[in-house]
Amino acid sequence: MLVQWVPGEIRCHGVPVTGQPIRRPWNQLGWVGNATQNAMTLHFAIDPTGRPVSLTRETTGFVPLSDDVEPALAASRFAPQAPQQDCTVTYMMRSSALAGADGLELMAYTVHPVTGPLPEEGWQRIRDAGGDCLTNPQPQPLERHFPDFATIPATPGVQDWSMIRYDVDAGGRTRGAALLAGTGNRALDAAALKAIRESRFTKGARSGCLYPYWRAAAKLPAPDMPEAIRATKLAGNCPDEHGWAVPPQLRFPEPYRRRSIEGWAVIGYDVAPWGQTGNLRVIAAQPADGFGDQALAMIRDAKLPASQQGYTGCVDRVRFKIAPEPAPSAGGEGGAPVPGT
């Protein structure tokens, strides 16, 4: 089944607020059956730049196929110069059989298939939006053009994509190229149309061809850590500097890595005489509680050197940073054709 998450009305202090824009969570494939959790409510604030911060889940318990809901809100935007507190939004799950799913929603899934390849019945639904170009033998590219992706502005936290529909004439030239769907990156849309118009294919008139181009997300840096948080001290005997007998395993929270969203967390904890950490708590985390959860798990599995009495009041700060971007030519942007029948 195709699973979509749709945001409801956003309210801050009970007053409706409009996003500019609100990013949809990525579509996923899965079987939800009689799942009782088909909604997720998030609580957050909006900083002076219009960025959502301090995201926390109000919905408790496991919610299937929801790992991109919170990151999608973190990548959204609101009007600048209008900070807000006490904001909430509820996302509702929608599921549909692949054979009856919306073709454009299936196209969106194929751009970032996080839960596995799209089955044949889904591809057939996409072909229904095309024409005879998508039946084998398909026109083969003789000269495939691509945008210069390095010149196209990337959107922080969002992998942009453009699906182009076009025809091929008897001589293999493209005709009638038009934007069918995408995320609204106008520069990518224009470059994708230009690339398709300049491409050439094997001879034979065909109609309703489909081809996507995508642009990797730009890095969304973590919010600044306030000085008061940076200087957090807890009562106890924990040394300011300490080593590790078993260092924390540095793992980036995967749903945020996929969107190139950075974050940080401040964790408080105690240490047993044999070095085991305990009494862990999240003092602060930004832009979302997912970074606090990940940092907590990392320090829980770590150990300090053994000591006579152990320690109380330890504080560690964890920064989650995306590795430097590769050269634009190695960025992996591009497209993949719709497989033929």
Summarize the structure.
By secondary structure, this protein is an alpha+beta fold. It contains 7 helices and 15 strands.
Termini separation: 21 Å
CATH architecture of the largest domain: 2-Layer Sandwich
Q: Flag low-confidence runs.
A: 328-332
Q: How many domains is the backbone divided into? A: 3
CATH topology description of the largest domain: TolA/TonB C-terminal domain
Structure write-up:
- The structure is a single chain.
- This protein is of the alpha+beta class and 341 residues long.
- The protein has 3 domains: 2-100, TolA/TonB C-terminal domain (2-Layer Sandwich), CATH 3.30.2420; 130-218, TonB (TolA/TonB C-terminal domain); 227-320, TonB (TolA/TonB C-terminal domain).
- Helix content is 17%, strand content 30%.
- The chain has helices at 69-74, 103-111, 120-127, 186-198, 227-230, 254-258, 289-300; strands at 2-7, 10-12, 15-17, 28-29, 39-46, 52-57, 84-96, 141-143, 160-168, 174-182, 200-201, 206-215, 263-271, 277-286, 311-320.
- The strands form 4 sheets. Strands 1, 2, 3, 4, 5, 6 and 7 form a 7-stranded antiparallel beta sheet that branches.
- Helix 2 packs across helix 3 (120-127).
- The longest helix has 13 residues, at 186-198.
- It is elongated and about 85 Å long.
Tags for this entry?
single chain, 341 residues, alpha+beta, TolA/TonB C-terminal domain, 3 domains, 7-stranded antiparallel beta sheet, 17% helix, elongated
